[in-house]
Automatic annotation (TrEMBL):
Start and end residues of each CN hydrolase domain: 1-238
Sequence similarity: Belongs to the carbon-nitrogen hydrolase superfamily. NIT1/NIT2 family.
UniProt name for this protein: Carbon-nitrogen family hydrolase
Signal peptide: none
Pfam family for this entry, one: CN_hydrolase
Organism listed in the record: Neobacillus driksii
SUPFAM superfamilies named among the record's database cross-references: Carbon-nitrogen hydrolase
Keywords: Hydrolase
PANTHER family: DEAMINATED GLUTATHIONE AMIDASE, NITRILASE-RELATED
Amino acid sequence: MKIGSIQLEIKDQESKQERIQKVKNMLIEMKGYDLIILPEIWATGYFAFDRYVEEAEEIDGPFVQEFSQMAKSLKVHLFAGSFVEKAGEDYFNTSIFINPEGEVIGSYRKIHLFRYGSQEGKLLTRGSEITVVETPFGKVGLSTCYDLRFPELYRKQVDLGAEILLVTSAWPHQRLEHWKLFNVARALENQCFLVSSNCVGKTQGVLMGGHSQVVDPWGTVIAQAGEKETILTAEIDLQEISVIREDFPQLKHRVL
Ligand SMILES: O=C(O)CCC(=O)C(=O)O
């Protein structure tokens, strides 16, 4: 299975439309991938809080429609990262998972809103539903950035059958060591593959951490990006999950 994680630089001078066009141009060049993942609130820019309300869209709005079309034309499973979703009076940090037929088969509203140096908790409403999506290559758990610090979310995803954990992110460089550690920890403790997509560069005065990762169920980082905009590519063998879970049946030894 060929996986691509698009690590994006969010340049303040770019508009939402320009970022969308850039990502579409990148996607068009990505041939033969089974699954592609994008970062958190990348079209608006996670730290552009003053644009959240103005650029919010409904779940069936142009952003989702555009990337449904992209997934269909590329015949790829696309975790398109998150956008600011408007639903009635509420706003959510919502990520979407699209199948190669262009259908949105999963969406996830970020449960743990970030409040440290971030206005997210003030502007948005938190989600309450855990999302695990059924795909031809197994069940996939969706999560967003700060969620990485809350292991119970991922354990609940595993209880729902998740074997691949996807993390869309805008994680700052200041806490890069935490990022690297949590990527590995969530994969290892749950004996899952984990694929993350982060931002890079300076946006709204905040330096982003990059280092998007693909981690295997043994906790080995099999691919890791640096601190530049890039497409991180990895081939994974999903059989490793059952082999490792049978050989070292830690999940069966849970007491609590
Ligand atoms: O937990 C962290 O240090 C970063 C979290 C974050 O940036 C986010 O949730 O957007």
